[in-house]
Specification:
- There is one protein chain.
- By secondary structure, the chain is mainly α.
- It is about 75% helix and about 0% strand.
- The protein has three helices and no strands.
- It starts with a helix and ends in a 9-residue tail after the last helix.
């Protein structure tokens, strides 16, 4: 019975090491949230015809929603054994 427990714990540790989200994913996600926050703050600034709210905020929101957040979800870094 003890041998089975050791085997289970070894397998469990190996599964945790293959967890798909790594530090790079969290950094991409955090930077995406940062750009979204700055974009919404820029959007909330008035007057509504200013360059800040009409040009900068859409660029920041697009960068956050369309680039950084999808990269955080889809990015799979290579394993350390293959490098």
């Amino acid at each position: 019975m003890a041998a089975k427990d050791k085997q289970y714990h070894r397998r469990k540790k190996a599964d945790v090491s293959r967890f798909p989200f790594r530090k790079e994913n969290y950094l991409l996600f955090a930077s995406g949230i940062f750009f979204l926050t700055i974009g919404y703050i820029a959007l909330a600034q008035g007057p509504w015809n200013s360059v800040w709210s009409l040009t900068v905020s859409p660029v920041l929101l697009l960068l956050g929603y369309c680039v950084l957040i999808p990269l955080a979800i889809l990015y799979r870094p290579g394993s350390k054994e293959s490098q």
